[in-house]
Automatic annotation (TrEMBL):
GO terms for cellular component: plasma membrane. Belongs to the ABC-4 integral membrane protein family. HrtB subfamily. This is Putative hemin transport system permease protein HrtB. Pfam families: FtsX, MacB_PCD. Part of the ABC transporter complex hrt involved in hemin import. Responsible for the translocation of the substrate across the membrane. InterPro entries: ABC-4/HrtB_transporter, ABC3_permease_C, MacB_PCD. Residues 281-395 form the ABC3 transporter permease C-terminal domain. Keywords: Cell membrane, Membrane, Transmembrane, Transmembrane helix. It is a multi-pass membrane protein. The lineage of its organism: Bacteria, Bacillati, Bacillota, Bacilli, Bacillales. Residues 18-238 form the MacB-like periplasmic core domain. It comes from Paenibacillus whitsoniae. Its main location: membrane. The complex is composed of two ATP-binding proteins (HrtA), two transmembrane proteins (HrtB) and a solute-binding protein.
Amino acid sequence: MSVLILLWRNVWHRKTLSLLTIFSVAVTAAVIVLLLLYRQSVEVGAEKGYGPFEVTIGAKGSATQLALNTYYHLGAPTGNIPYSLLEEVRANHQVEAAYAMTTGDNYNGYPIVGMEPGYFATRYGTETAMASGKLYAKLGDTVVGAHVAKALGLHIGDTFTGAHGLVQGAEAVDDDDEDGEEEAHHHSFAYTVVGILPPLLTADDRAIFTTLDYAWAVHALDPDKPKEVTTILVKPRSLLGAQAVKTTYGGVSNVQAIYTSKAVADVVNVLDKGSQAVSGVTVICVVLAACSILLSLMAAVQERKKDVALLRLIGKSRRFIWFSLLGEGLLLTLVGLLLGLALGHFGGYVSREAIFDWMGLQIQSWQFLPGEWWLIGGTLLVAVAATLGPSWQAYRVEPLQLFRS
């Protein structure tokens, strides 16, 4: 009888305990894979999140809030700044490109963003060749992100009306005449889809883009009132240029200029603290999985002491007994590990749309991550450590003494 046949018979004989062991290992591996996918999405999102716009200018307030609203389309803007500031920024010789952004409305929960068309070529280059249609050119034209088009089933030529606020139902209409008039403007202003963006793998996939002046038209801005924008995105000519721009416009009244990379790094640090808490739970899962393997094999040794003694009497070596128990632990671990890897990636794949809707993070499942090698190696080492005790106990069985007792 070969070791493999013996392993299979032993595992099959104790189906319930074997399945529980496999399940504990699989759950642990799946949680770790999901954590790895989450961390990768955060890193990729931070890397691609703001493109070449190293400086962001907006209203006074939280720097992280400004960065999240501008580049990830999350949360509320910090306020508005004068539109006239845009021309000053563009006239600065340290600035290579600058684009203003207006926001504050949504369609079915997806943000409507006013942005100058040049933004796409500056940020994405040739990647913005439309999946279909063309870029917007006049008031009311919109270009929708790939995720929005898929989620809402939008096509070229479709029309819709937006709503005030950054999420669906964010602001109710009360009896105030001014509020009612503003809401009427929203419902009477129609957008037309003229283009659909290709997948850009950034939060722009979940936004609807239109001309910068949409906000002034929708909110019926008084022609005599100075125009305002939400944010100005700045691509400096150099790192020294970025410092000069930040210093110059950070001193303007009620205006802040931030280093985008620093603000995004602060967000990533906050997310990392959350993932560290999840890591603590994962360590507990690893310990429980190791205990499950240990208890399973200890029970197996107690059950099969006479079987082990009989194998020794018919001539099987102690090494054979050792490897049969060691192999059983590794087999159960390996099956659970492979199942857990598959479940982790499947879980990431199934939840990718919800996570992208919620946080704007792209989960890239079914791609082998570098951390998975550590997961495989570490899990097998834990399995070996858990099987050493029971294997040694079986190795020391004296067949004649056992049968005499």
